[in-house]
Specification:
The structure is a homodimer. Chain A has twelve helices and eleven strands. By secondary structure, chain A is an alpha/beta fold. Chain A has two domains: 239 residues, TIM Barrel, CATH 3.20.20.70; 109 residues, no CATH class. In chain A, helix 8 links the parallel strand 8 and strand 9. Chain A starts with 9 loop residues before the first strand and ends with a helix.
């Protein structure tokens, strides 16, 4: 699909982990943006249902996000130490800890589902699919996007034959898309990431991270992106399945931080007790730690308790509006047009 | 001075610590931007000489940056432990460690100098000057700017009566301008910082951090800044006093990180051996640690050895061009005009 043909240069972030709904994706696509479904943490059958439901709501293009989870040896001692540190939390929320297992989130099945359903855009996060996976999706008519955070990942993705890159700045809420999460991972700000990646590869770039209003949309287009990917700004929409405590936290002032406390992978969320108390202990072990903490997070969510919940949010979360998603798309587009024209006037004509 | 009257919306970052020169500031102002002198780490007499020299080179407006160093109780045990950890470095470079003392960088004298010399723009970093200092500068006809990193600092600066804010994103090279450096300091990306601060105060904003080409200049104008403050992009200019090993490091690919290893305050530099080996041990004690490491850094610089040198650089340092500063100003302005017009076209007319 031609990103330049989008009526509004706005892509909805997939919002894995409970926020994504067919209604949200449909509303964004209907308003001239590009809606996305998340397949992460979901069984393939549920994803198939979501796709069917989405297509019953709109005939416009949409996307599906798939995790590329790489099996790295889990640091056994660190994992079991972390499990011990979490036992009082499990008692507090009257649950057992989950099993800290590796799984690949049904990668192959989800790719086959995307092929079978001829999903218009399939985006990948946490790594780069192999060239044969990209080719198989291309044969089915799917466009393939990969989330990258720095120029070397961008070059690797280009070599796999993908069609566009989602450039994720460190401002973004939720998981960092690094191909490898480790002490040497780079945390580039969004503007810098776009400029450095635009100088390294020739692919269309979708800019993600802290973009929550139209001024920022115009900004990333100036930097060379063809569209902005917007997450937090859609999380208060009635179509989103954001939990009540998460909505309350998003709307209030509150600092965000990167943490491995909830999932074993760096992710940005609003600072809460669980992050403060466990952030320093959590090992880089994804998705093992995700499974370990799942029962605690579920219990906290059910209790409406924001203290032990992963409150994923980008740095600009307080800019989110509690408005229908289609209205958000249109209002971001309108603000962006004004901002770009004002900047053009400020700069004056070409000399 | 009216920032909107600048021919190019480009402010040269002060570049304290050895890079700033009157020739650099003059070239930027002559080309239609706003050049800046650094007073940080310099004796007032030397700053006075720089001001005279600058005025002999240009009749255009310029700025002077002054540090606002707050005396916080130094963590004595942590400081002496850090000094012990640095002793092998001192031996290696055949110097004695410096005395880890507090000083205020001659704040009062430098303010009086700015008043006496009627400096057009006086910017402050590391804190907010008291309202009476701002008033005194205003009486002398000086505009007053303060560097801020988040909305609460911006509100505090506005209450002191300042004329404009330099909004520093975490992408910026050199020291973070937090009023207080500590574990709770926020590290907002530049775009987010501008958007959140624009929503909190009504002052003109100058956007700093990772802006090293015209596309990024256009981007920060879309976000609502009236000008961009550019640092790394000027550091390879012949007018800059950047040391040879620093120039080589800026031009090569290389990750940057925040570290307290060199100065005791978070600052962004290109990762080198000293940062890797000492970054985790360095206490938050500025400028004590700065003085402690000064002899090591000076010896390394003299030896052309980049391993123990503070290689301050923003995240976009590889975009820096080795061109005369005036040419850089004009080329950034020209790129910005093209970028803003392309974004406007992409977005289409207002509906």
């Amino acid at each position: 699909m031609d990103l330049l043909a989008l009526q509004e240069p706005i892509v909805q972030a997939p919002l894995s982990g409970g926020v994504s709904t067919p209604a949200l994706a449909a509303a964004v696509s209907q308003a001239g943006g590009l809606g996305f479904l998340a397949s992460g943490y979901k069984a393939p059958a549920g994803v198939k249902d979501d796709l069917r439901q989405l297509r019953s709501l709109t005939a416009e293009p949409y996307g599906l996000n798939i995790f590329v989870q790489q099996s790295v040896p889990a640091p056994a001692a660190a994992l079991s130490a972390y499990a011990s540190a979490l036992r009082p939390e499990a008692q507090r929320y009257q649950v057992d800890l989950g099993e800290p297992r590796f799984d690949d989130d049904n990668f192959a099945e989800k790719v086959e589902l995307a092929v079978g359903e001829r999903v218009p855009v399939v985006s990948f996060t946490f790594g780069c699919p192999a060239a044969d996976v990209v080719a198989r999706l291309h044969e089915a008519g799917c466009d393939v996007w990969v989330t990258v955070t720095n120029p070397s990942e961008a070059v690797q993705a280009q070599q796999s034959g993908v069609d566009a890159l989602v450039v994720q700045g460190f401002e973004a809420g939720g998981h960092r898309g690094y191909f490898t999460d480790g002490p040497d991972a780079d945390d580039l700000g969004l503007l810098v990431a776009i400029r450095l990646i635009a100088g390294s590869v020739g692919l269309p770039l979708v800019a993600a991270g802290g973009v929550a209003d139209g001024q920022s949309v115009a900004a990333v287009l100036c930097a060379g992106a063809v569209a902005a990917q917007v997450g937090s700004a859609f999380m208060l929409a009635p179509e989103a399945a954001t939990s009540a405590p998460h909505r309350a936290a998003l709307a209030a002032p509150g600092s965000t931080r990167l943490t491995r406390a909830f999932s074993g992978r760096q992710a940005r969320g609003i600072v809460n007790r669980f992050m403060r108390e466990h952030g320093d202990d959590a090992p880089a072990a994804y998705p093992q730690v995700h499974h370990l903490t799942t029962p605690i997070r579920a219990a906290a969510r059910q209790a409406g308790d924001p203290d032990a919940l992963n409150l994923w949010a980008g740095q600009a979360h307080t800019l989110a509006q509690a408005a229908p998603a289609g209205e958000i798309v249109r209002s971001l587009g309108a603000q962006a047009r004004v901002a770009a024209q004002q900047a053009s006037r400020r700069l004056g004509p070409q000399r």
